């Protein structure tokens, strides 16, 4: 991603979500209010015009996406499942005592904005690249900034997460927290992924959890996007946001061992696969 440009992937995910909302059978998977809030945010932030949003929320665009689903089988519907997975862990985490929520690489996600009005005693944080975060902040200001919602504009490729959070007076590194990193780690260099998980663990208290998604590694050692892997990797690269990290599902547990996170295999929603991504939740263990 160019440092001076908002994330194209964040924009595409938000618009795709709106299009998927035109598919009635997906209604049970969408968190309450997510489609309306996403449409409002895109327009209020000037990330998209009203006509673009209307076009995204049309049966014609739905037909286009369904026709293109052969490129990444199942990934179109996976956007709704990913949002449901992350929101499930946030809500459950709050029920079990979490007092902080952090969304990494939030893009135009509306989870924090929506839930911050329902859970006044919980602090919600978002961190994203400054170019994307600036648009997001404009939209959130127009929609109504909550007193328990904190938007942080930082490039985590240049600054460590642990330092960014330590500088924020509202963040408590000893509090039970829920961290979200959906659609993020595949865009990081391998050495940066493990470092990020380690810093996440060092920034939260015991009983915390992290929910994230990742791309599995294929037999050729590249991220596995299904039968059109070569095409998808090329498209990601020319689009300026290449996939850089992937891992074999059977290797993920060992990978997390050195980061103070452990997958809870007994949890109903601990690990699932939709489209080309695995969705995983892990708990802080030491």
Description:
- The chain is an alpha/beta fold and 286 residues long.
- It has helices spanning 8-20, 34-44, 50-56, 59-67, 75-95, 111-116, 130-143, 161-166, 190-202, 229-238, 252-257; strands spanning 100-104, 123-128, 149-153, 177-181, 209-214, 261-263, 271-274, 277-284.
- Strands 1, 2, 3, 4, 5, 6, 7 and 8 form an eight-stranded mixed β-sheet that branches.
- Strand 7 (271-274) and strand 8 form a beta hairpin.
- Helix 1 (8-20) packs across helix 2 (34-44).
- The chain is globular.
- The mean pLDDT is 91.
Helix content: 40-55%
The CATH superfamily label reads Vaccinia Virus protein VP39
Beta-strand fraction estimate: 5-15%
Number of strands: 8
* Major sheet characteristics: 8 strands, mixed
Corresponding CATH architecture? 3-Layer(aba) Sandwich
Radius of gyration: 18 Å
The CATH C-level name is Alpha Beta
Q: Report how far apart the termini are.
A: 34 Å
Would you give the CATH topology? Rossmann fold
Structural class: alpha/beta
Uncertain segments: none
Number of helices: 11
SSE sequence, one letter per element: HHHHHEHEHEHEHEHHEEE
Overall 3D form: globular
Give average pLDDT, whole number. 91
How many domains in all?
1
């Amino acid at each position: 991603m160019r440092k001076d440009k908002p994330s194209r992937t964040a924009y595409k995910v938000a618009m795709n979500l709106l299009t998927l909302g035109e598919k009635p059978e997906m209604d049970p998977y969408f968190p309450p209010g997510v489609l309306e809030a996403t449409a409002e945010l895109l327009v209020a932030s000037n990330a998209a015009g009203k006509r673009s949003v209307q076009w995204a929320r049309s049966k014609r665009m739905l037909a286009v996406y369904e026709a293109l689903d052969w490129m990444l089988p199942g990934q179109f519907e996976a956007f709704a499942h990913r949002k449901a997975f992350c929101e499930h862990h946030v809500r459950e985490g709050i029920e079990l005592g979490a007092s902080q929520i952090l969304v990494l690489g939030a893009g135009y996600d509306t989870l924090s904005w929506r839930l911050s009005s329902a859970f006044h005693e919980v602090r919600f944080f978002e961190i994203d690249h400054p170019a994307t975060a600036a648009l997001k902040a404009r939209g959130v200001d127009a929609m109504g900034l909550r007193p328990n919602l904190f938007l942080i504009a930082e490039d985590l490729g240049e600054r460590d997460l642990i330092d960014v959070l330590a500088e924020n007076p509202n963040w408590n590194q000893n509090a039970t927290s829920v961290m979200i990193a959906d659609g993020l780690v595949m865009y990081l260099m391998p050495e940066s992924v493990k470092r990020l998980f380690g810093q996440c663990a060092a920034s939260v208290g015991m009983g915390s959890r992290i929910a994230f998604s990742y791309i599995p590694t294929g037999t050729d050692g590249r991220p596995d996007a299904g039968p059109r892997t070569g095409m998808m990797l090329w498209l990601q690269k020319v689009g300026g946001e290449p996939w850089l990290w992937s891992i074999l599902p059977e290797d993920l547990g060992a990978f997390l061992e050195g980061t103070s996170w452990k997958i809870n295999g007994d949890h109903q929603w601990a690990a699932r696969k939709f489209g080309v991504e695995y969705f995983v939740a892990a708990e802080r263990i030491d």
